[in-house]
Amino acid sequence: MKKIRIGIVGYGNVGRGAEKAVLAAPDMALRAIFTRRDVQSIKPADKSVPVLPIEDAEKMAGEIDCMILCGGSASDLAEQGPMFAKHFNIVDSYDTHAKIPGYLASVDKAAVNTTAVISCGWDPGLFSIMRTLFESSLPDGAGYSFWGPGVSQGHSNAVRGVPGVLNAVQYSIPIDNAVEAVRNGSRPELTARQKHLRQCYVVAEPGADKQAIEQAIKTMPDFFADYDTTVEFISETEFASNHRAMPHGGMVLRSGATGENTQVMEFSLKLESNPEFTASVMTAYARAAFRLAEEKQFGAKTVFDVPLTYLSEKSRDDLIKELL
Amino acid sequence: MKKIRIGIVGYGNVGRGAEKAVLAAPDMALRAIFTRRDVQSIKPADKSVPVLPIEDAEKMAGEIDCMILCGGSASDLAEQGPMFAKHFNIVDSYDTHAKIPGYLASVDKAAVNTTAVISCGWDPGLFSIMRTLFESSLPDGAGYSFWGPGVSQGHSNAVRGVPGVLNAVQYSIPIDNAVEAVRNGSRPELTARQKHLRQCYVVAEPGADKQAIEQAIKTMPDFFADYDTTVEFISETEFASNHRAMPHGGMVLRSGATGENTQVMEFSLKLESNPEFTASVMTAYARAAFRLAEEKQFGAKTVFDVPLTYLSEKSRDDLIKELL
Known about the structure:
The structure is a homodimer.
Chain A: E1 4-9, H1 13-24, E2 28-35, E3 51-53, E4 66-69, H2 73-85, E5 90-91, H3 100-110, E6 115-117, H4 126-137, E7 141-147, E8 150-151, H5 153-160, E9 165-174, H6 176-183, H7 192-195, E10 196-204, H8 210-218, E11 228-233, H9 236-242, E12 248-258, E13 261-271, H10 274-294, E14 299-301, H11 316-322
Parallel strand pairs in A: 1-2, 1-4, 2-3, 4-5, 5-6, 6-14, 10-11
Antiparallel strand pairs in A: 7-12, 8-9, 9-10, 12-13
């Protein structure tokens, strides 16, 4: 069987996760890694895989069946998505929920002869699948998404932006009472504060005003003001030994009814590595993007558009026999 | 908007559940209920809905956009599936896992100008979706399906077949230790006995040999011999007051890894009414069958073949805006 030739764009945590996933997939070959950094600074896991400047990617159109875009939504994808979709089938994990329709349109415009599956990590991605499947299966009900316990990169970055902060990490923690209420079949209306706690671990600059830092964090609009937030100051050493992992996870729940009967649906993830899992899901969708393109199903797609048969390494017959 | 015209075939627990689901769906109209029983004996929830003999169904080809087949796999569907698929778009919950490929082929052969989505309840159905999505997202791992706590109709019927048994119900109970081991990221190899307990509540005939009944149940091959089984004798009164509900549920789990990191995925259902939930899922797939047929995507399909956009009452744009 001819292997699906994959390119990885961006070699941060997600890019390295994609590298692992692609190297482990028996039906894929990792053709190249593209980076904006000095190519010499990058040591790929498989030394035979070329590391190339991102500007050289276009020259490889025709040699790569799908590009896995591993950059961030704001900094990278808004530009890279449409740019790469002109020449390559792509997948990405674009996750600025409010801007997805606009991003989808811009990628779709570019993907005239290519297939692009956008926003296909775990949220957006698997969680989106669950929200839709749950709502369709149980229309009379209420849906809930909880995130964590885990590290939110966005909130961690926000804390790191506070003057006097050297380093920081923010854990989002779902509030047990809220989760249990839904699991037990009620349909509570929950404020942001009732759904998640925010725990910050901060390394302050020597001599910084810790009270001012704590105050600045807790009152930060959007990120923290609407939540119960804890701030704990720790040393750089403690940070390095206890807070460098990137666990995450969360739950999608739906509590509803058919007639008089309560029905509860739940999906959960417990992830030791958020970026590796995101990359692993994207790698499955890279397979789908390639197969859709082979059938000339071009344009920008979401997880809502892609049948599961396209995701699996197994044939449809085997899926039906083994997993239906 | 023109409503999707639905027919329901079979008016047992699942059929009555489908009736509720269709009457609650704003984009559907319940056109008729078909039964093998005396039509006078059936009192539909909406008195304006005609109840007709199943033999008259064929005359209504062209007046029904999708038939929801609510019969059992062995007794009804093996024959009804191909028969109805000749003239109607259909959905069903065919659940004899080992025979699905053959059933799919026989329905596919009949569905030349129609669309049939088979085996689209919760297992097979939603659980199958999870097994495939989990395996594709996390290839290095092990998958597990647990059923219950809940009533297994097949096992209850098996107990009712034992001489001296007047009435009986069997609850399948997942074994906590097994579930917790998987949740904690290990990949145990589990025997049938290690995964589920079987609890039987039996009403015996007056004067029956209870020891013989218990022995007959516990040694029954396939159904009970490979499990730890408990048998409790109760009165008809207790049976009527405590054991007439049809709760069910279960879990699909996958415990795996990306690189060195453990990742755990879980889906669970907690259902007060198994037949109503099955019917509710089938009703969503009835929408999909109709829409696929409108696009001339004919033939027999499974949940692996149907994109989520076809299931939801919402438009693709709204799904992307609200749920992605």
